[in-house]
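Weekly structure sync, notes
Attendees: PL (lead), two postdocs, one rotation student
Agenda item 3: pending single-chain targets
PL asked that the sequence for the first pending target be pasted directly into the notes so everyone works from the same version. It is reproduced below exactly as submitted, 117 residues in total.
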Amino acid sequence: MKFLVDAQLPVQLAQLVQAEGHDTLHTKELPQQNATPDSTINSLSIQQERIVITKDSDFVDSFLTIQQPYKLLLVTTGNIKNSDLETLFAANLPLIIDLLSQHRYVELSRDSVAVHQ
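Predicted structure, written out during the meeting:
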């Protein structure tokens, strides 16, 4: 799978997902880096079929109204240490991958992984 990790999430998260064998970019790798507009992230997501990993609820709004980005993984952990976020991702990544192979919008919280229609 291909992923695009949004600015408010750590680069280490992108590295973790990539280390598990997935083509993963962080917004810091894009020409406008972390200042990349959501519209550009959405376009890149559609063009390259990348799943956007974000904490930004604006992506939920665009997904529900205009079906962009391509697919969405919303992180709703609130404030969390980067190391705890990485541990949470590592523990749930196989399930997340499985769900995203069948669904377009998945949410990861501290306690669960949920599918949204």
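Discussion points:
- The first helix runs from residue 11 to 19.
- The two ends are 20 Å apart (CA to CA).
Action: rotation student to compare against the earlier draft before next sync.
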